[in-house]
Amino acid sequence: MSVRLPFRLINPVVVSPTIAAVGLSFYSYGFPLVGNCLEIGAVQILVVILFSLYLRKISVFGHRVFLIYAVPLGLAITWSAAFLLTEAGAYSYKGCDINVPASNIVSEHCRKHVLRMKSCRVDTSHALRSSPWFRFPYPLQWGTPVFHWKMALVMCVVSIIASVDSIGSYHASSLLVASRPPTPGVLSRGIGLEGLSSVLAGLWGTGTGSTSLTENVHTIAVTKMGSRRAVGLGACILIILSLVGKVGGFLASIPQVMVAALLCFMWAMLAALGLSNLRYSEAGSSRNIIIVGLSLFFSLSIPAYFQQYGISPNSNLSVPSYFQPYIIASHGPFRSKYGGVNYVLNTLFSLHMVVAFLVAVILDNTVPGSRQERGVYVWSESEVAKREPAVAKDYQLPFRISRVFRWVKWVGI
């Protein structure tokens, strides 16, 4: 399906707050979890900031190692420190029974101590020791997929929002590699392949879809590497590593507090990269300022209103922010006689990126504004690529695959 019709409604003013809302939606998952083990989580954040900002201009053998590898280096250093502290007994449970659920622990001291030790230790999941060296995944390995129309409808809407994120990433990447903005045909091809990859991910039972990662745009900007061969080689390496069970076990052994610390950096980057799309429009325009401001504010405020229905005031249950939409689905403010409609509306309006997209796309397409003010004139230049052979070659499928799919319109320029 072509994206020509939606493309007319999606402009930089819409893409910017939508992507930023994805990053901001994890604010309640970041530092609140880091606080469970400050000496690990806070160090993780400080090390990444030190490498990415203060040491970013230092070169080692002609490469800015600290800037390019800020996140993996920070993760390796902090995990090593946590591993040494765990093996040295610094994070022992001191007589508290870890097998008793936290809600059933009588001692207040043990309740807090067990939570802190589980957040700091690297062997809580025991995944590194129990995982096999090699494991070959196969389709339908977790059984036959189950279809629920309510969840399917929610995921269709979320997929549309993810496509908006992808459109912004495609345009940002094209400027970094000194090429023309992608044409609607190229955008359709990219989004179509993301959908195909999501189908394959569902067959293999990964539990997640496939979409472009906005942080990789920053990676291209830092490394100055936009080669298809480099990306293809990296993909092959990741496929091989996915067959090594110990790699997955190692990732599972990373303390949750370190994951939260990384998200404090990564999702902050995502929010900033989302807002950077405003450079395609008149960022100082009062029209755009109001639209972006309202979109971001309501993307946090409206889900907060819906989330207050998720858990009763007398409940001690603590649910992470990314699980709350599923709790709210059955207890949200929409309570009509149609249960399925209630489920869909309560879930959608509790998702930050959905609210940001709806507010932005409605306001941007109804409030009068010039093409230059909205940024349409920049993205519409993609049509020039059809008349430039050199640019058209950049967007052709590799290995002459385009010849095989010549009959499919959405794979072309």
Give a written overview of the molecule.
Residues 312-320 have low confidence and may be disordered. The chain has 413 residues and is mainly alpha-helical. The chain has one domain. The protein contains 22 helices and no strands. Helix content is 61%, strand content 0%. The chain is globular, with a radius of gyration of 23 Å. The protein has helices spanning 4-9, 12-24, 31-34, 38-54, 65-68, 70-87, 108-120, 127-130, 149-176, 184-203, 215-223, 228-242, 245-253, 256-275, 286-307, 324-328, 339-348, 352-366, 371-374, 376-379, 389-394, 401-404. It is found in: Membrane. GO terms for molecular function: transmembrane transporter activity. Keywords: Membrane, Transmembrane, Transmembrane helix. Pfam families: Xan_ur_permease.
Could you give a short description of this structure?
The protein has 413 residues and is mainly α. It has helices at 4-9, 12-24, 31-34, 38-54, 65-68, 70-87, 108-120, 127-130, 149-176, 184-203, 215-223, 228-242, 245-253, 256-275, 286-307, 324-328, 339-348, 352-366, 371-374, 376-379, 389-394, 401-404. The protein starts with a helix and ends in a 9-residue tail after the last helix.
Please render the helix and strand layout as text.
Layout: H1 4-9, H2 12-24, H3 31-34, H4 38-54, H5 65-68, H6 70-87, H7 108-120, H8 127-130, H9 149-176, H10 184-203, H11 215-223, H12 228-242, H13 245-253, H14 256-275, H15 286-307, H16 324-328, H17 339-348, H18 352-366, H19 371-374, H20 376-379, H21 389-394, H22 401-404
